[in-house]
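User: Fold both of these, please.

Assistant: Here is the first one.
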Amino acid sequence: MRDSLVAAAFQLFLERGYEQTTVDDIVALAGVGRRSFFRYFPSKEDVVFPDHERCLADMTEFLGRSGDADDPVARVCDAARLVLRMYAQNPTFSVQRYRLTRRVPGLRTYELSVVWRYERALAEYLRGRFAGQRDGTLRADVIAAAVVAAHNNGLRSWLRSDGKSDATAEVDHALAHVQQAFGPSPDPAGPAAGSTEDDVVVVISRRGAPMWRVVQEIETTLGRDPD
């Protein structure tokens, strides 16, 4: 019945327009009563976004299963991909909804409130991971906002293509910027970025210097005590 209500609603939205369609129109086309509609959807706006509550619950559960060994930035990027998966499961519906929300300011406002709930879920997880760190809360909020912005940038690129481009590639490309900016720093004990483990040392010595002097200069350059 839930799917039937969504299908009926979008059929009417496309035929008459969102604002010209009432809940009574939707239930009449679906062949159910008003009580059945409100059992599934608190308002007409909610029927436009029928899958976000479930996706938000899936995201929260996914983040809750995280372990201490998981990189928190990579984890929230993977959590954002759950939202992409939801959109990509039904490209036709997702593109129709995208077009509808662009035309109806009230739906755009509603959509922004949904996006904010995703961002809050990511931020709460990151705050827990960064607890006790300097500027931990600030870092958590900034990264959560960046993940949402990057995900939405890739998602909108796919939607603007009418679902014909590669959704995964679009979002992965956008999220890669977040991981590059906020991901784990290189190990300070390891080799410097761009270097190799085999360093090349050049020592300049006077012509005719005895070999023992040349060896001594090399060992000094390498930081070894000459024998």
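And the second sequence with its predicted structure:
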Amino acid sequence: MIRTVIIDDEINAQNFLEKTLEKSFPNKFNIVEKCNSVDSGVTAIKKYGPELVFLDIQMPEKNGFELFQYFDAINFEVVFTTAYNQFAIKAIKRSALDYLLKPINAVELSEAVKKFENKSKGVWPKKIDLIIGKP
């Protein structure tokens, strides 16, 4: 099972994501904690060492990008979940695995999970192979 932390200040968004993951991927995710702030998310990440973090950007007090300053090395994948598309470039620069706009679409969530699984296995996506000229 994939150890996962969800960080979002909206309880409904946390619950929706959790239920969608459970429904779409039964027995694949172990959601070790749902957090409503950057600070509680940092604590959960340090405590559980998740493989995957779903991270909202716009939250009271601190935004999701501030989470990264609390770690010397990022040894987990991040899927940003936000209602705002203007942060996409910043997320790419942070090496986000994916960037999902709310309300989260189940098909896009499935694609993000597939990216995570492929990256974990060391498999490059076909789009990259096309860009660099591999058959």
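Helices lie at 11-24, 38-48, 88-93, 106-121, 126-131.
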